[in-house]
Amino acid sequence: MTAETTTMSTRTPAQFAGAAKLDQQLCFALYSASGLMTRLYRPLLDPLGLTYPQYLAMLALWERAPSTVGELGEALGLDSATLTPLLKRLEAGGLVTRRRDPADERRVLVEPTAKGQALREQAGSVPAAMLCNLPLEADELKSLHHTLTRFVSGLRKADAGAANQS
Amino acid sequence: MTAETTTMSTRTPAQFAGAAKLDQQLCFALYSASGLMTRLYRPLLDPLGLTYPQYLAMLALWERAPSTVGELGEALGLDSATLTPLLKRLEAGGLVTRRRDPADERRVLVEPTAKGQALREQAGSVPAAMLCNLPLEADELKSLHHTLTRFVSGLRKADAGAANQS
DNA sequence: TACTAAGAAATCGTGCACGATTTAAATGGA
DNA sequence: TCCATTTAAATCGTGCACGATTTCTTAGTA
Q: Which residues of A touch B130 (CB under 8 A)?
């Protein structure tokens, strides 16, 4: 993006110009960073046969299984329309099982198979490899992570509020 | 995500546990932040008839038109497989025109229509409205933006390097 | 002039993401 | 008990994203 060299819009009120540009750049930077990171994960995850969202789902399941679709959705910030087909693909790959909860037939319990558990060992080297790719110093990463965590937490509240209004 | 309350994995070698967790959380935080931001933009962009990627494309075109598909791709970090259908939708909505460059028939020039230019006025209020939604203080936003910009710049280099290797 | 190589955009197939709707199960009264 | 309400997941339609391939154009070169 040529954002740095952008001249001020001639129509934007002066008092908004700075803030508007900052906002645009921040949101765009988040958008770009997210996409670039997914791309950097690809060569690490391809050998495991996982996409990045699938990797996130497995991480969640390795920490807590069985989980319901709803619990996974809460953990990952995704809804059933996204998770159901993703989990079906993981099931087709033999990594998880899906079954109705006998105690509440509305729920679906998802759980890693033996193969899915075995994958955890292979996946163990991913975070360290990924860390090597990240272009900031350790303290900067920590600071970025800290700010982002507060940011996400705030956004989630705003998002929940917006959902309740409608 | 229950990341804050996550207990340490019992299988991860101790010396990697901290770094691994930090990495996972940072990447996941970026992924989450990006998705949440797109969601926050939706109510602002819906009245304009734009999605967030379409809004980004229009921002780029308002700054520089005509642009080729390749130039837009460079600016937004997207390839022609993503942009071509997106631009066709903008064209179908009457916001841009697409035509082959007479000087080089390989290129396609994209340019806002009068309607696309008019939309710029309406879109002027979007950044300020978005800014109100963001949950951090101005100095924190600035710091986040600064770190993210360096981060993205570094990731782009890493990504370009990876592309050249293959 | 031909012939190859390089470039730009479009196309194809797969997967993620979500709003809106649907189906089915559980819950809470009248 | 019966029925309305709520809840959980699945489904449908649209749009983004990208690797791989294809088509067409331009450039370079024997």
A: 23, 27
Check CB contact under 8 Å for A148 and B144: yes
Say if residue B13's pLDDT is above 80. no
Q: How far is the CA of B74 from the C1' of D26 (A)?
A: 21
Q: Is the CB of B89 under 7 A from strand D?
A: yes
Structure tokens at A151: 């940011």
Chain A residues within an 8 Å CB radius of B143: 143, 147
**Helix, strand, or coil here: A68?**
strand
Sign of CA dihedral A131, A137, A143, A148: negative
Q: What is the pLDDT of residues A31-81, one digit of tens each?
A: 999 999 999 999 999 999 999 999 999 999 999 999 999 999 999 999 999
Q: Cα distance from B26 to chain A (closest Cα, Å)?
A: 5
Strand C, nucleotides covered by protein (CB < 7 Å)? 7-13, 15-20, 24-27
Chain D positions with a protein C-beta closer than 7 Å: 7-13, 15-20, 24-27
Rounded to an integer, what distance in angstroms lies between the CA atom of residue B70 and that of residue B14? 46
pTM of this structure:
0.89
HEC sequence for A95-158: CEEEEEECCEEEEEEEEECHHHHHHHHHHCCHHHHHHHHCCCCHHHHHHHHHHHHHHHHHHHHH
Measure the CA angle with vertex A38, ends B165 and B76; round to 5°: 85
Using left for φ > 0, alpha for ψ between -120 and 50, and beta otherwise, residue B7 falls in beta
